[in-house]
Amino acid sequence: MLPVSPANLVKVEVVLPLAISKLYTYYVPEEWVSRIQFGVRVEVVFGKNKVYAAIVVNAIKEHEQVSRQVKPILEILDDEPIITQDQYKLWQWMSDYYCCTIGEVMSAALPANLKISSETQITLGPLYDGNMKGLSDKEFIVMEALRENGVLTTHQIRDLLERKTVNKLLKGLLDKKLIYLKEDLQRKYKPKVIKCVRLTPEYQAEGAMVKAFELTRKSEKQTATLMALLQLSRTQDHPVRRKDLTKMTERADAASIAALVKKEVIEVYDLAISRIESYDADLVETNALSAQQERALADIEAAFEKQRVVLLKGVTGSGKTRVYTELIQRAIERGEQVLYLLPEIALTTQIVHRLQKIFGDQIAVYHSKLSNNERVELWKEVQVGKPVILAARSGVFLPFQNLQLIIVDEEHDPSFKQNDPNPRYQGRDTAVYLATIHDAKVLLGTATPSIESYQNVVWKKYGLVEMKERFGGISLPDIHIIDLKEATQKKLMQSIFSMEMIQELKEALAKGDQIILFQNRRGYAPVLHCQTCGWHQECLNCDVSLTYHKFHDRLKCHYCGFGMSIPEACPACGSVALHLRGFGTEKIEDELKIYLPDANIARMDLDTARTKNALLRLINDFEEKRIDILVGTQMVTKGLDFENVGIVGILSADQLLQFPDFRASERAYQLMTQVSGRAGRRKKQGKVLIQTYNPAHPVIREVIDNDFDHFFSREITERQQFGYPPFIRLIKITLKHKKPDTLNQAARVYEHVLKKKLGSWVIGPAIPYVSRVRSYYLLDFVIKLERDAKKVRYAKESIELATREMKKTPNCSGVRVGVDVDPM
Fold this sequence. Notes:
This protein is α/β, with parallel strands linked by helices. It is 35% helix and 23% strand.
């Protein structure tokens, strides 16, 4: 259908799920005017012929003129809105705050099966006469497949030919007028249906069954089937599934059911059911609150009277989760909705089962491991008022109707930050703004608050409640430092372990205690280098060393996934003196088997816990004491609660402290404190062993003393002195391109515009710590701003201007720009 001029038509503005910076206007055909409303998806053509599902967000009154010609809406896809006005307010804020388009926010927010777009379909052209002369082999294969199937998608043709791209081939067939292309909107979400059986309305009336059995008296199978249906209908409170009917009696086979349908005694129908698993077990009563938990709860509610956001600072094992459950229970009793946010990795069966035992089907879980159809169904459950949602950061996008409480557990965790792609949002900060929209309260919980959150307490923006004692009066773990420099000099090392560490592990195992060993690096060894000339093996696509993984006997890149075998000799000098340097979790596991051969050892890192089921198996095996020693990366620091851990070992504290980032000390303190908190959580005091070459480092001393106040005081003084958050605002801009010359040219243009507008606020361009990733060269700019809303707005406008000017420069239109507001 051709565009029309903007006469007196009803028009709407829509958001498209694309990285475009504005809304687009379409007109509504007259027969659909009464159905159009905010928040419904509509099918529209964008560009030449691509079809998308867009969301209606604004109506344009008839007297308002639209300057360009407008296209019609092709179809309205929903009878009811799929988003709320409050959600759209959040999208607008995120688009503005995080310097991205509203279409990118929409793409991140909606479940995949609600974001539908067209797929190109290929059919035989009207001029095709069966003549296949002059076709190449691949063209012949495609034409034969079309003759056989009638319609193929581009994806099917790629699979058929085993090629990544088929555009050139399809263009050739189009030029020969042998094929025809059309766009078809793929409706991805399909409800799950089961076949059910019921009596027809005529035989549901009282006394009608006599007539029904009269019709079946000549068939024992039909009579048995009818008897089974009646029995199931009376003994269960849900519809009778066809498979349950056939299971109940062997006589209820497909033929007998079909015969009863033909006689119009019963009918078989499709029933849509939820994919979300229900909780069928008995609920448990919550334990009585301890005196400390009672005080914390009262203090939180008192603080909520004055402030929207409250920070609950409780030592590891203090029972914060029990306080959360009490707050959730009270919210449910008031008919409110609650969003409980956790880092993704902490969404394990431990916390899920603990809450399901208390709240049953009133709680649902929303995270990345759900299927696309499950996400749509959970979205709809929230829309109709599901009381409690346990979610990763993406939970902020759900369509809440009466959200009154948001709990952000482990609020300090870096995984609340989305790093790529857009929107690069901070889940914790977005949750605070979401609460503002809904007039809700926010509880931030952690043992190790982020510097920003605690400074907001100092500035009186947030309230503060503290829980300083472990639940049950258990003491905090005894932390002991092992000086690696001294142990090396005295030859008291056994490979990567000090002899003291090995002895402590043996004694713990002898007592039946379990052990967690922490090393924030996976793989066997991070560097393969030549002892003769100093060469080391780097990734072909990224400027990083390849990590050796012994299980696969390959070198792997942790940025792009590139892998290769270990070379037999140094490619630079020919020497065979190649040496693996450093150690990761795989080497720790391997070496432990030598020194502790009788121990059951397992690893928890991205290699062994890549899937949800693998992670759950590891956690369950450790909980059931089938594993004695668990070696892991920061996965083991996040919210896991094991009652029999006697020792936690941190094998390389220095590696955490030496990272080139102004947040290195903060993260090191948080990680070491959190992993230390896994020790001795129930019955007895645990022990923590920290191996380090620098035992006098202030962060290590503060971890030993559990002295957050001293850590914060020292860290905040340095941040203020050198101009870092929370005293200033940071915006990082990354330019990337596969050609370094093009990237440098773009950076010069970008620098000229930015520094002309922002002057000394701009730092860069600078080569980042990792200067090439996935074959793209990178250059960074950093903008440091005062905490002033007008200056921040001006800076963001200047970034948009610099991006436009750079894109207009010859050869630079392909340079990618990533803007990260409040980088982590």
